[in-house]
C-alpha cells in the first residue's frame, strides 16, 4: 500500500523519552504478554513451509539459462500465476500488520486503502500502461524512463529505487525478526539471519521464477492463516451483528462502521475536504503513483508470455485484492473489542492521544492469534506471517537485482558484456542486497519512525513520478529536460509541505499531510513540466514509438491474438467487471 499508519513499528520499538531503561522494560512486557504457547505441531507446520519454499527454488533453478530467465522468468509465465504473485508481493509487513492496525484504530475507513487506494490504479495499470511497458520490451520501469526522457531522469529514478528496495527489505526483515522474537522467543539476530538466508537461497537459485512461484504459495498460506482467524474471531464475538454492536459501543463509536467521510483517517474535520483528500490524495495521486510506476509490482507482469497476459496480471490481482480487507481489516476490528489488552489500549489512547503503553494497534493481529487460535491453526498462522514478511522481502530483492544489473551496472559501468556475465552480476547483486538488508534491519531497530519515514519518502517520489509518467506517455511534446525538472520540483514541493506540517505552519493528523503533499507534488510536477517543455526542444517523433500513445501503432500496443481470446481472458472486460464490483463494495459496505 502507498501509506500505512505510523504505529506500524511502535510495537517493536516503543516511543519513550527514556530509551535505555523504559524501552527494554516495555519490550519485555510486550514479549511476555504476546508469547505464544506453540506446540510441536506448530513448529512442524512452519518447518514444512520452509521445505516447500526451498524446494521451489531448487526446481526453478533448472529453468535458468539466460539473464532474461533469471530476471524476468523468460517472459513465459501464465497470467494467473503472475496475477497472484502481483498481490502476494504486496502482502508484506506493511499490508498485514499495518492494515490490521488501521482496522483496529479506524474501522471501515481502512477499506479505502484497498477499494480507493489500490484496485482502480491496478485496473488502470492493466488497461492503459502495461501495453507500453510490455510492448516496448523494457526490462524495468527505470529503463522505460531512460528511453522516454534520457539518462538524467533515469539515473535518479534507478538509484532512488534501488536504495529504497534494500531499505524496505531491511525493514521487512526487522519486523519479521521482532515478531518471531516476541511470539516464539528466538533471539532477534537469529530470526533475521534465518529469514534472510531462506529468501536469499531461493532467489539466488531460481531468480524471479522462484520468487513468483513462492509468492503464489505464500498467497494461499497467508489466506489459509488469516481466513480461519477471521472466522473464529467473528464466531467468538457473536458474528457480524455482534461485531457491529460491540464496535458501535467502543471508543470511536458507530463512525467506525462507515467508510465515508473517513475524517479520522484523513485528518480533516470537514467532511467534504476529507472525501476530496481520500479520493484525490490517496485514490488518485498516491495510489496511481504507487501501483503504476513501482517496478516491484510491474516486474511480475513483465514475466508473462504476451501483452494480453501482462495486462491481465494486475487485473486478475484486483479480484482477490478487493476482498483482502475482509481478512486483514476485520480481524483488527475484532481484536480491538475482543482482546482485553487492545480494548483497554484503545480506550486509553482515545481519552489521551499522547498516551504511551506497552500495547499498540499494530499488535492487534498478534493478540487475536494468541486469543483465538488453537495449536495446529496457530502453526498455520505463524507460517502465514512468515510468508507475508518473506514475500515482501523477496519482492524487494528480486526487483533490486534487476534494476541494479540492467539499469545501473550494464548501463553505466560495464556495457556490451556476454549475457552470462549479467546473470552472474544478478546473482551477486542478490547476495549483496540480502547482506545489506540484514544490516539495515538492525539499523531499523534504532528508529521508531523508520516505516513512517519510508512511507513519507514514497509520498515524495511516487506522486511526481506518476505525474511525469502519465504526462510523458500521452503528450509527445514533453521534453527530456521537462521530465527531469518536473521530478525534482515535484519532489521538492512535497518535502516543503512535509516540513510546513512538521513545524506547525499547518497541522493535519492521520494521513492528511501526506495526502496534501502528494496532491501538491503532482500539480507542481505537471505545471513545471509544461512550462519547461515550452522552452526546450522535444525529441523527434520517430524516437517515441512504443513510448507515447499517439505515436505507437495499435499493433504494438495489442496482442495480435487478443480478438480470439475467450471473454474471461479479455483485459478490458475483466477490468470493467472488477470496477463495477469495487464500486458496489464502496456503496453497499461503505
Number of strands: 0
What would the principal axes of the Cα set say about the shape?
globular
Roughly how many Å is the radius of gyration?
23 Å
Series of secondary-structure elements, N-terminal to C-terminal: HHHHHHHHHHHHHHHHHHHHHHHHH
Please describe what this structure looks like.
The chain is mainly alpha-helical. Helix content is 73%, strand content 0%. The chain is built from 25 helices and no strands. The protein has helices at residues 22-34, 40-61, 67-72, 79-88, 93-106, 112-115, 119-135, 141-149, 151-184, 188-237, 239-248, 263-266, 271-293, 295-302, 307-321, 325-338, 340-351, 364-372, 377-413, 419-444, 450-474, 480-502, 512-534, 554-557, 571-588. The radius of gyration is 23 Å and the shape is globular. Residues 1-28 and 447-451 have low confidence and may be disordered.
Keywords, separated by commas or semicolons:
single chain, 590 residues, mainly alpha, 25 helices, 0% strand, disordered N terminus, Sodium:solute symporter family protein, Na/Glc_symporter_sf, membrane, transmembrane
Amino acid at each position: 500500500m502507498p501509506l500505512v499508519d505510523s504505529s506500524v513499528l511502535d510495537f517493536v520499538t516503543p516511543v519513550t523519552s527514556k530509551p535505555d531503561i523504559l524501552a527494554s522494560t516495555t519490550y519485555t512486557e510486550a514479549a511476555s504478554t504476546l508469547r505464544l504457547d506453540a506446540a510441536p505441531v506448530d513448529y512442524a507446520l512452519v518447518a514444512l513451509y520452509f521445505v516447500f519454499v526451498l524446494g521451489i527454488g531448487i526446481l526453478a533453478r533448472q529453468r535458468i539459462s539466460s539473464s532474461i530467465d533469471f530476471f524476468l522468468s523468460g517472459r513465459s509465465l501464465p497470467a494467473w500465476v503472475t496475477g497472484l504473485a502481483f498481490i502476494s508481493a504486496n502482502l508484506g509487513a506493511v499490508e498485514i500488520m499495518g492494515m490490521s492496525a488501521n482496522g483496529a484504530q479506524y474501522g471501515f475507513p481502512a477499506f479505502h486503502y484497498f477499494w480507493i487506494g489500490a484496485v482502480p490504479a491496478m485496473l488502470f495499470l492493466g488497461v492503459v500502461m502495461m501495453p507500453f511497458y510490455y510492448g516496448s520490451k523494457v526490462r524495468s520501469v527505470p529503463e522505460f524512463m531512460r528511453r522516454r526522457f534520457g539518462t538524467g531522469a533515469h539515473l535518479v529514478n534507478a538509484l532512488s529505487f534501488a536504495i529504497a528496495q534494500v531499505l524496505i527489505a531491511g525493514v521487512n526483515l526487522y519486523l519479521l525478526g521482532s515478531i518471531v522474537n516476541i511470539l516464539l522467543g528466538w533471539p532477534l539476530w537469529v530470526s533475521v539471519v534465518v529469514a534472510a538466508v531462506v529468501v536469499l537461497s531461493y532467489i539466488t537459485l531460481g531468480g524471479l521464477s522462484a520468487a513468483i512461484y513462492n509468492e503464489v504459495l505464500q498467497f494461499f498460506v497467508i489466506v489459509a492463516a488469516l481466513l480461519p482467524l477471521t472466522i473464529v474471531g467473528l464466531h467468538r464475538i457473536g458474528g457480524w451483528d455482534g461485531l457491529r454492536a460491540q464496535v458501535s459501543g467502543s471508543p470511536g463509536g458507530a463512525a467506525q462502521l462507515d467508510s465515508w467521510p473517513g475524517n479520522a483517517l484523513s485528518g480533516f474535520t470537514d467532511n467534504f475536504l476529507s472525501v476530496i483528500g481520500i479520493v484525490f490524495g490517496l485514490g488518485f495521486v498516491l495510489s496511481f503513483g504507487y501501483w503504476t510506476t513501482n517496478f516491484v509490482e510491474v516486474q511480475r507482469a513483465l514475466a508473462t508470455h504476451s501483452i494480453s497476459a501482462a495486462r491481465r496480471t494486475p487485473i486478475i490481482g484486483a479480484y482477490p485484492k478487493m476482498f483482502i480487507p475482509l481478512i486483514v481489516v476485520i480481524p483488527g476490528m475484532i481484536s480491538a473489542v475482543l482482546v482485553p489488552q487492545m480494548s483497554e489500549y484503545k480506550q486509553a489512547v482515545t481519552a489521551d492521544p499522547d498516551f504511551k503503553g506497552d500495547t499498540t494497534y499494530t499488535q492487534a493481529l498478534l493478540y487475536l492469534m494468541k486469543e483465538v487460535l488453537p495449536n495446529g491453526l496457530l502453526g498455520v498462522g505463524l507460517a502465514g506471517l512468515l510468508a507475508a514478511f518473506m514475500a515482501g522481502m523477496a519482492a524487494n530483492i528480486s526487483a533490486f537485482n534487476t534494476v541494479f544489473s540492467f539499469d545501473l551496472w550494464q548501463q553505466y559501468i560495464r556495457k556490451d558484456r556476454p549475457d552470462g556475465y549479467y546473470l552472474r552480476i544478478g546473482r551477486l547483486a542478490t547476495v549483496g542486497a540480502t547482506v545489506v538488508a540484514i544490516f539495515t534491519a538492525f539499523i531499523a531497530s534504532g528508529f521508531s519512525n523508520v516505516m513512517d519515514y519510508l512511507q513519507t519518502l514514497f509520498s515524495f517520489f511516487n506522486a511526481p513520478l506518476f505525474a511525469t509518467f502519465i504526462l510523458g506517455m500521452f503528450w509527445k511534446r514533453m521534453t527530456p529536460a521537462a521530465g527531469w525538472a518536473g521530478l525534482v520540483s515535484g519532489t521538492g514541493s512535497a518535502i516543503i509541505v512535509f516540513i510546513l506540517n512538521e513545524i506547525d505552519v499547518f497541522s493535519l493528523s492521520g494521513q492528511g499531510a501526506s495526502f496534501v503533499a502528494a496532491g501538491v507534488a503532482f500539480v507542481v510536477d505537471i505545471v513545471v513540466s509544461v512550462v519547461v517543455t515550452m522552452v526546450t526542444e522535444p525529441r523527434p517523433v520517430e524516437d517515441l514509438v512504443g513510448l507515447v500513445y499517439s505515436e505507437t501503432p495499435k499493433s504494438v500496443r495489442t496482442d495480435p491474438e487478443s480478438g480470439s481470446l475467450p471473454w474471461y481472458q479479455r483485459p478490458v472486460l475483466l477490468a470493467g467487471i472488477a470496477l463495477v464490483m469495487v464500486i458496489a463494495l464502496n456503496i453497499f459496505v461503505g
